[in-house]
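protein under study:
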Amino acid sequence: MIRFLLCILLFLPFKNYAQDFNKLLKEAEQLESAFRESEAFLKYAEIVHLQPSNIAVLCKCSELCTYIGGREKDKAKKADYFKAAKTYATAALKLNPNSTEANVVMAMAIGRLTLLASGKDKIASVNDIKAYAEKAIRLDPANFKAYHVLGKWNYEISNLNFLERTLAKLFYGDVPKASLQDAIMNYEKARAINPGYILNYLELAKAYYRNDEKKKAIALLTLMMPLPNHVFDDTRIKVEGNRFLKEWK
């Protein structure tokens, strides 16, 4: 069902041109603020058909697809959303390759798709994630999401064990260099730019804990808990953070 719906939204002409753009945008923003991301996405997708060159809305569609897809339990539906995220990001980049937001949502979309990939495709995707995130930062050093993506990239790559690295190098090509210290540094940069980004607190706490800095990890999760929620997933993130607090204390 979702695959059919996305095909309609992405590739068929939008007929209801009488819809007022500002009305649609307001409705989409209200739905997003109410954490009704699936409904918000459909509204933003309508706007794309009214204004196919609206980079900001294309990027918003891509970002929401990564969030919604991340919560899907069905692998096929998950893949549909992640592919849609990449499609929207690709459209935004075609309009402006030097859009910092378009580059970061592309990094996010590829990162999600990498979770479903295997073999050489996964290794190639890993390099692409880093390239898009780094370009987003070059274009805008205040892009906190790009720093977070780089932090996650370093955390995951540096967490590969010796056997995983050996097998990856043997069968799929060399594994790029990454470090836990760089992960912490990038997460900290993201936090400095946007101290209200809840997901970053959780990931940074996990990085500090892995680095044998349990007190810092606990302090971060403690700071995270009273922060206001900004996206649907923030509630789940706090539940996970609370579980870690109980385990680590």
About this structure: The chain has three domains: 1-12+22-114, 117-194, 196-249. The chain is about 75% helix and 0% strand. Confidence is low (pLDDT under 50) at residues 10-15. The domain at 117-194 is CATH 1.25.40 (Serine Threonine Protein Phosphatase 5, Tetratricopeptide repeat).
